[in-house]
């Protein structure tokens, strides 16, 4: 299946739905949980910027570079964040999981763990990818720790990789999971979900 195909990925605690403009109001509410500003090292949109962020992701999908999802909490029914397949390389069957953010109230709840399990399962078992990447800011220690808990391995650091809107240079840490590593990663994610459920 092409990595750009929109489809619903559903688990016990989270439902990933193809991102649409109908998700705007819920996502604005989720973004408000960050207060005046999210962490400086990540790209959570301000509530007033959510509609434009959705349109950017939909434009990237139309260009074949991204497949965006809205993250819905199965228990409450609320849309509480976004995630994507990005930097899609269909020819080489590679993809990055990124541009992910969740409302603070949804963090450390099992939602992110199950979302990553759904996305990785789809990438490896539905799309036959040869590598799934994760990238994050060098200073985003929370994200780095979460990626490492998934079982992704570090590939290296892209120094001075990009320039932020305020002109600050970003070092990007790159991780990946390969097909032969996927069974162990899948087992670890399932075990973490089972621990959340207890």
TrEMBL record:
Pfam families: Acetyltransf_3. Residues 14-174 form the N-acetyltransferase domain. One of its GO terms (molecular function) is acyltransferase activity, transferring groups other than amino-acyl groups. It is an enzyme of class 2 (transferase). PROSITE patterns: GNAT. Keywords: Transferase. Its EC number is 2.-.-.-. The keyword Transferase applies. The keyword tRNA-binding does not apply. This is GNAT family protein. It comes from Microbacterium limosum. The lineage of its organism: Bacteria, Bacillati, Actinomycetota, Actinomycetes, Micrococcales.
